[in-house]
Design brief:
The chain has about 650 residues and is an alpha/beta fold. Helix content is about 30%, strand content about 20%. The protein has 22 helices and 27 strands. The strands form six sheets. Strands 21-22-23-24-27-26-25 form a seven-stranded mixed β-barrel, surrounded by four helices. Strand 4, helix 3 (about 70-85) and strand 5 form a beta-alpha-beta unit. Helix 10 (about 300-310) crosses helix 12, helix 10 runs parallel beside helix 13 (about 395-405) and helix 21 packs across helix 22 (about 630-640).
Length: about 650
């Protein structure tokens, strides 16, 4: 077997490991963060389970860090109290970004990890099967339930050669995105193999697995080898290490070869992670802002490279440079060895160890500004400034460009970044709270901004309504449920958030939905790409959305819609999409019978303005029952009755 098959086989509870077939797997670990965690824990409480049944569940507070009102602080208090009450570890504010900290302190080769954040695959760097999902799926896993998914195809990415000339791991994943696009990994696991793997450190592997999410991939995974062993030894966690690799001569569904020696510095241009060009082709663009950090490039190794390039220099007068170390471990080590002082002396603004600018939580660029970021997404408006042009680059490119004031090709700069793999990391776990002992009572504190989440109703015999909006391809969850400093504090208040649903694409959408009493959304391909945020499904439930008709869906968002009782219908004929307009009347007669039959047929008949359209509905029997019940919460309650 290949490595992916080994990991799945070791956790398989239901189904057959045949690509596209529904399977259920056991989950060993979960993680949440505060942007999605409040809702996940409200859902966990609704299930009536006293204590988590995983080997390890961790609640991170790393997203909603600007406390300009009481809302974020209240959410943090709720998460800390509800988590400790139910057997969950808590990483306190300032301890670091969930993916960086989990990689450092909790990752285990061979285990499964389900996280309510789309970049959970970061831990695939050490041989975990780490998957991003909606908060409700994570809540079920915390309660001991299986995680249901279609068996993915496995794409082997065979690495040869060695990085050189200031090319970095960020350039590797940008190169792959250029090759495959943001849809190229849908329904697949990207499994890395070949002699080039041994030349990459764990932080470099983590950069690649982290941004594998932008391919739409289920996850990405590296073998656990001698490099992994060294990382665990340095983290004083050698007991958690185990070697893992694919069998010699095993089969894959697809194979791609990439020579690391051919990789050059790359940049993802506005406004998509796959709009990639070699920096040598676009060098010289005037830069206004540089942001270094995020879960993609905030490791100790990345920070040390940046410090070495900034040492003795000064940030250009036209540039604002911010640096966000990925964890308190990283920040503490930078402070202890003097690297932090070099950054500060150069003019960098040091932000706390948190997601920060990556999710629009502060540091929005100026009007029409060019912002270079070492992050993983550059969707239009995600930075908080719609007119800004955001480029995704490596830490080396970012640091050199901050000094020059223009986009610099690091391979042509004559500079060299210091590479450091520490023999020992400074272990600081005193900001990680253990759960309360079983049986101990903990008061769960709920602030006034925490509102009950919407729960759908059972499916009626006939579903009807108007098309409320017609959208283009690649609508992201940032479009569906905008983020940023103004809205993130309301992640526990879906009724408030619903008034902003899809407003970046259709400013009047919430009002139209309310006036019509709900209805349907029509969209192009890859609908719902990006974040795992369940709010992009909960806000439509709040607004009465009955179904989404799209050319294709992103995996996590499609699952979130079904989990919340919303139909996910895929066009079988291009002319049917072309025929629909805003205010088209949609009717699905015999809806319950059609949905039940779709388990076998994969299709249902929808009437649009009286004309029948055959549409795909790819669901298994469990998903059909969820849709009929009005979502996973109702389905779970019915099963327990």
């Amino acid at each position: 077997m290949n490595l992916t098959e080994k990991l799945i086989a070791a956790h398989l509870l239901e189904g057959e490991m045949k690509a596209g077939s529904p399977i259920a797997i056991r989950i060993d670990q979960t993680l949440t963060q505060d942007s999605t965690g409040t809702m996940a824990y409200l859902q966990f409480e609704a299930m009536g389970i006293d204590r988590v049944r995983t080997q390890k569940s961790v609640a991170y507070i790393d997203h909603n860090m600007l406390q300009t009102g009481f809302e974020n602080a209240d959410d943090h208090k709720y998460i800390q109290t509800v988590a400790t009450a139910h057997g969950i570890w808590v990483s306190r504010p300032g301890n670091g970004i969930c993916h960086q900290v989990h990689l450092e302190r909790f990752s285990k080769p061979g285990q499964t990890l389900l996280g309510s954040d789309s970049h959970t695959p970061t831990c695939g760097a050490v041989g975990m099967l780490a998957i991003g999902a909606g908060g409700l799926d994570v809540a079920v896993a915390m309660g001991g339930g299986a995680y249901h998914i279609n068996m993915p195809k496995v794409c082997k990415i065979f690495l040869t050669g060695r990085l050189s000339g200031m090319a970095s791991a960020k350039d590797v994943i940008l190169t792959i995105l250029k090759m495959l696009s943001v849809k190229g990994g849908v329904g697949k696991v990207m499994e890395y193999a070949g002699p080039g793997v041994a030349t990459l450190t764990v932080p470099e592997r983590a950069t690649i697995t982290n941004m594998g999410a932008e391919l739409g991939a289920t996850t990405s995974v590296f073998p656990s080898d001698a490099v992994t062993e060294q990382f665990f030894r340095a983290q004083n966690r050698l007991a958690d290490y185990r070697p893992l690799a694919a069998d010699d001569g095993c089969a894959y569904d697809e194979e791609i070869t990439l020579n690391l020696s051919d990789v050059v510095p790359m940049a993802a241009m506005p406004h998509s992670p796959d709009n990639v060009r070699a920096i040598r082709e676009i060098a010289g663009i005037k830069v206004d802002q540089v942001c270094i950090g995020s879960c993609t490039n905030s490791s100790f190794a990345d920070m040390m490279k940046v410090a070495s390039l900034l040492d003795g220099k000064t940030v250009a007068e036209n540039v604002s440079l911010t640096i966000s170390p990925g964890s308190r471990q990283v920040l503490n080590m930078l402070a202890a060895n003097g690297a932090l002082a070099k950054m500060i002396a150069a003019g960098a603004r040091i932000l706390e160890s948190a997601c920060g600018p990556c999710i629009g939580m502060g540091q929005s660029p100026a009007t029409n500004a060019v912002s270079l970021r070492t992050f993983n997404r550059n969707f239009c408006g995600r930075s908080g400034t719609v007119s800004a042009n955001v480029y995704l680059v490596s830490p080396e490119t970012a640091a050199l460009s901050a000094i020059a004031g223009v986009l610099v090709d690091p391979s042509a700069s004559g500079e060299q970044a210091a590479s450091l793999v520490p023999e020992t990391f400074t272990v600081l776990d005193n900001m990680i709270l253990p759960p309360a002992p079983e049986g101990e009572t903990v008061e769960v504190v709920r602030g006034p901004n925490i509102k009950p989440f919407p729960v759908n109703t059972p499916m009626p015999e006939k579903i009807s309504g108007k098309v409320l909006t017609v959208l283009e391809d690649n609508i992201t969850t940032d479009h569906i449920m905008p983020s940023g400093a103004k809205l993130l504090p309301y992640r526990s208040n879906v009724p408030y958030l619903a008034d902003f649903c899809l407003t970046p694409s259709d400013p009047d959408f919430p009002q139209k939905a309310k006036a019509a009493g709900g209805g349907f959304i029509v969209a192009g391909s890859n609908y719902g790409q990006g974040s795992s945020r369940e709010h992009a499904a909960l806000a439509p439930v709040q607004l009465g959305i009955k179904g989404v008709l799209a050319k294709s869906f992103a995996r996590i968002h499609a699952a979130n819609l079904v989990n919340n009782g919303i139909l996910t219908l895929t066009f079988l004929h291009a002319e049917d999409f072309d025929a629909l307009r805003q205010d088209s009347e949609i009717c699905i007669p015999n809806a319950r019978a059609q949905v039940a039959a779709a388990v076998d047929t994969g299709k249902i008949t929808v009437f649009a303005d009286g004309k029948p359209m055959e549409m795909a509905l790819s669901i298994d029997s469990r998903q059909a029952n969820m849709l009929l019940a009005g979502g996973l919460i109702n389905y779970t309650k019915e099963a327990q009755a």
